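To: structure desk
From: M.T.
Subject: fold request, one chain
Message: Could you run this one when you get a chance? Sequence is below, nothing fancy, just the single chain.
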Amino acid sequence: MLQSLGPTDDERVLPPGRLSFTISNRRGIIQSGDMLFAQLSARDPASIAGAHHRFLRHPDMPRAVFARSWELLHAGGSAAAYVKNLSADGRFFWVFSAVIPVCDGHVAIRSAPRGPLFGPVSAAYRRLHAVERQGEGMAAQLARMDGELAALGFPDFTSFMARVLQSETAHLPADTGSPGLVRSEIVELRSKIAGLDRAQRELAEAVRALHLIPTNMRIIASRLEPSGGPVSAIADRYKHDSAELIARMIDGQSIRNGSAAPLIEVLDDMLIHDAIIRLLTAAAGQAEGQAESQGGFGLHSGAQAAALMRASCDAPPEGITVLTPAELRLRLHQVRHGAEAVIRLMAGLEQVRILGEVESSRVRDDDQGLSAVVAQLRAFHDDVRERLRPMMLLLRHLDVAV
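Reply: Done. Structure tokens follow.
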């Protein structure tokens, strides 16, 4: 393994606008790269070929970042993150690194961090590393990293990758991305779908709290028999309809019926693929420009490395979903239809609740607590109406996108 001097506080800086690349096999053994990478790592290019990427690892980097990245790479996908690297002379250099499957290995493309997430993420790294030094296990570290991402507004690592890749490739030419994809439109659409997803989740949490209400109403109705007969029927109807609503929103049927969450995952895939093509195209262009002048090192010449990267732009990597415009419109219609079905179910529940109020007023003299349950239902429905408003507004905005 290549050795480095102990870390210092001196920093190297990747030139703005420049990309650096290395090509490795699937185990992370470097096969070739450009001269800029050799300069940043402060090593003789001849000593780099055949070495594992881990010789760059800076002790300040949380291990969980690499563990999560390798999970994605072993599954055939790409990985992207900010990385603090260690040079042979002890200096450090920060990069935004995207590791992408190519042929029988990976290409790692590095650029100088420039996006707004770099500061918050590097601060999160310091917190993660501090706990790691106390001996926390990898499973706990991964969970802690997920918590840090959630605090930054990302439900998972893929969502973070989609955002950071778009941010760090925003300066690259617009015509180097996915053919036929208008990035700004997908970003805007994802924002709307994410808003709808948040509204759905908040509504689901509110609905989850109502499951005991019809049961309590049924118990009270049994005390009021025979006068409570209609109340029993109303309670049974409310319980049946609310169970259908809960199943649609919470128990997994929402995915089959057009929930927003799966579409967000697809849009993230499309944004990741778009950014990766931008990086591969830009890095290939730089490699071709260096083929005759600076050159590189290892098994691939600049022209060969460029050809390898361009070939990887032809099809999405394994596990990435890229929808055609027609497929995307269909998925949007499914999301809208699923949300509208929830709204209709809530309207039906509202009618059942009104019938409950009517029956409560009929047995007011000795209602055994029925009026209190009905009041609880009324408060619940008032809360739901407030939660439905943003959903309906977002659906109107979604009509424009569809």
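Reply (cont.): The first strand starts at residue 20 and ends at 25. Let me know if you need anything else for the meeting.
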